[in-house]
Amino acid sequence: MAYPEEQGGVPCGFLRQNSGNSVSLDFEPHTEYRFVEQLEERYKCASCHSVLHNPHQTGCGHRFCQHCILALRELDAVPLCPVDKEVIKSHEVFKDNCCKREVLNLYVYCKNAPGCNAKIILGRYQDHLQQCLFQAVQCSNESCRQPVLRKDLKEHVSADCQFREEKCLYCKKEVVVINLQNHEENVCPEYPVPCPNKCVQMIPRNEVDKHLAVCPEAEQDCPFKHYGCPVKGKPSNLKQHEHSALRDHMLLILEKNFRLEEQISDLYKSLERKESKIQQLAETVKKFEKEFKQFTQLFGKNGNFLSNIQLFWKGRRTNTTPTLIFIKHS
């Protein structure tokens, strides 16, 4: 009985008439198939008893899968047919292409039944699985290992997969869904977090420091910290503190002013010492200026005095003593 193949198949009869088409047909051996009609014995391997894969026929007329006939040769130098114990002679073994075409055109049910009700010729079985909507496939999202039916893959990738990427609702950054909660609670700069001072406001994470500067529940330093008051508290409590610690604050101010006066006094004393030193230096400068002026007048009246001195020292270096002219000073 012929069955029109579903999902883009080719009529069985055509394939049986055209042996050339069988070249591209094949199936996975050692796999359990559900045949539409009961599998005839002539299509079963005489060794493994499964459907024949690349059948070869021996001289005694029995058929074997290609890998089964090779296995028999490897096991025994003189292999025997397991059916009739006849010696299998290599030159009598031939590839049974006629049987192969018949096997490849046997109809089987899709393994994904009852979801998929397709009937496919055995030679197109793998091609069908590459398109079957009920075949389990791997999710395309990186790191996802969950098998998904092909018909559900699109929805899984876009809506269900824990490894898909989605935009953070707050910072709009693309984040893998499985990491989204951690991103929001620990990383996202725009995620609203409670005020550390437990005020009623929720603040974006990156604005917490700015909020703390104006938070009504934030502890602040006493206005008299500059004078040495160590008290901290909320603004409402600091007002009460200012009134209750008025005397203490005044004492701190007086103590601060006393220390400042001492520092000012020390600065005045240091300044007086420096002024005295400056006066001494000024007198020394005047003295040097006076002496320099005298020397200038002396050299002005005796212009060749320096040149005579230079000639004298030059003569000393060359062992010749030039005539040194001394000018009598008035």
UniProtKB/TrEMBL annotation:
A molecular-function term among this protein's GO annotations: zinc ion binding
Domain of life of the source: Eukaryota
Family matches, as SMART domains: RING
GO (cellular component) term, any one: cytoplasmic side of plasma membrane
Keyword field contains Zinc: yes
Residues annotated as domain RING-type: 45-85
GO process annotations (BP): cytokine-mediated signaling pathway; positive regulation of canonical NF-kappaB signal transduction; regulation of apoptotic process
Keyword set, alphabetical order: Coiled coil, Cytoplasm, Metal-binding, Receptor, Repeat, Zinc, Zinc-finger
UniProt xrefs under Gene3D superfamilies: Zinc/RING finger domain, C3HC4 (zinc finger)
Domain TRAF-type residues, every copy: 128-181, 183-229
Subcellular location as annotated: Cytoplasm
Coiled coil: 257-298
Zn finger (TRAF-type) start-end: 128-181, 183-229
Family: Belongs to the TNF receptor-associated factor family. A subfamily.
Name of the featured protein: TNF receptor associated factor 5
Lineage, broadest ranks: Eukaryota, Metazoa, Chordata, Craniata, Vertebrata
